[in-house]
Amino acid sequence: MKFPNRFIQIGAALFVSSLGAFAANDAASVAKVLPPHQYNPFGAPGETSPELLAALNKMSETGILEGRRNSLHLFRWSGTPPKLTHLGLWGAKVNNELMSLTALMPDLAFVSLYETSVDDAGVETLLKLPNLRYLTFAPIERYEKAGFGAPQWSYPTIERHNERPRVTGRMLKVCSQSKTLESIDLSDAKVESKDLEALARCPKLGSVGLSNVIDEETVKHLQACKRLSNLTIGNREVSAREIELLAAWKGLRSLTITRTHLSKETLLALSKLETVEALHLADCGLSDESLQCLKGSPKLALLDLTRNEINGPGLVHVSNLNLKGLELTFNNLTDLTIGHLPQLGSLETLNISYNTGITNAGIQNGTLQGMTRLKKLELRGLKKVTDASYEDLVKLGFLTNLGIRETTTSVETVARLKAAMPKTDVFK
Predict the structure, then answer these.
(1) What does CATH list as the number for 1-204?
(2) CB contact at 8 A, 1 and 324
(3) Whole-model pTM?
(4) What is the DSSP string of 5-30?
(5) Helix or strand (DSSP H, E) at 58
(6) What is the three-state SS of 314-336?
(7) Domain ranges of the chain
(8) What is the C-alpha separation between 168 and 192, in angstroms, rounded?
(9) Per the omega criterion (within 30 degrees of 0), is the bond before 81 cis?
(10) Which mean pLDDT values do the consecutive 10-residue runs of the chain (428 residues) have?
(11) Which alpha helices (H) appear in 247-318, and where do they start and end?
């Protein structure tokens, strides 16, 4: 089964929000004008004007934090010739004045702002960008886990500034004039249900993140959006009643709930979402016992349990869901408990990255090699997987994609794997 393009779009929009999703290495901090390449962890930079270079300097200066080596920002260039298409900025120093500099960046398609001081006036500036497709106002990710450390683009030590200026739902009337906007995440905005009426006038809007409590009025306005199918909520308690109300929205295909605790009643209510194909429950404190309440729904194909406390035995409770994709990144699987994975016999995509209890022994015990329906397997961050597992990794040649970034496999072993697995894209 191939996942619909909207799942790919969700990933692109959400790892910025939740994930997820715009990951990059830090660019060098700048207190003076530097060559353009200093700003580009992704792709080669394009030729730039002195004015653009000065604007990039000013933006990067807002991300210089005490005790941190690099500036906290994301500039990403793409295309031929390269143009600046992604902008990510963090912290309360980012304000409307800084947003006015985006007039020098007409190719921006993705703008992600995390706990900034940008308000509704700043949004009006951003919406003048002719190619803007994804706009995010999200909380700073502060996830960390003992034995793992903080993942990429997570900053547990950054101070919260709750009294800063904020975007409000009133600016949605301005957003409704955009002919290009496909996704807007308002998880860090102050939104009321009545503000959402304007969403229906966004012709391309397919994904939205909300901070307000879901009520009947919210659902009514979401249903009125013809192309909207993806919803993100969280960063607060989510009740079973809210999930039950969402069940009336027959256009809902993907639901993300993030950074919260989900009660037994809320988990049970998720089974009422009969149209949902992708369910993301990230950083929700779920355990093996919690999975007893996760009954799923008939169309559910992708279950994302990233950043929870799942050891493995509880997977028996979701083995009857006919899942095609399962995400278990940053959980507690070990060499022994991955033995519970084969009972999910319908899986085509499996991600067990950053389950650091998986070592060479887990790769060598034959569990993964027996899951021959898999097409994609991600083993990123398994630092105890080394060259000693070469012979067993080769047995995964039935895969189309194998991810082994941040394992301890050598360049030479990766080259051997690629030669021995010609039908598999081995990514290191």
Answers:
(1) 3.80.10
(2) yes
(3) 0.90
(4) HHHHHHHHHHBTTTTB----PPPPP-
(5) helix 50-61
(6) HHHHHCCCCCCEEECCCCCCECC
(7) 1-204
(8) 8
(9) yes
(10) 41 38 32 42 63 90 83 88 92 97 96 98 96 98 88 91 95 93 97 97 97 98 97 97 98 98 97 97 97 93 97 96 97 97 97 97 98 98 97 98 97 97 96
(11) 264-269
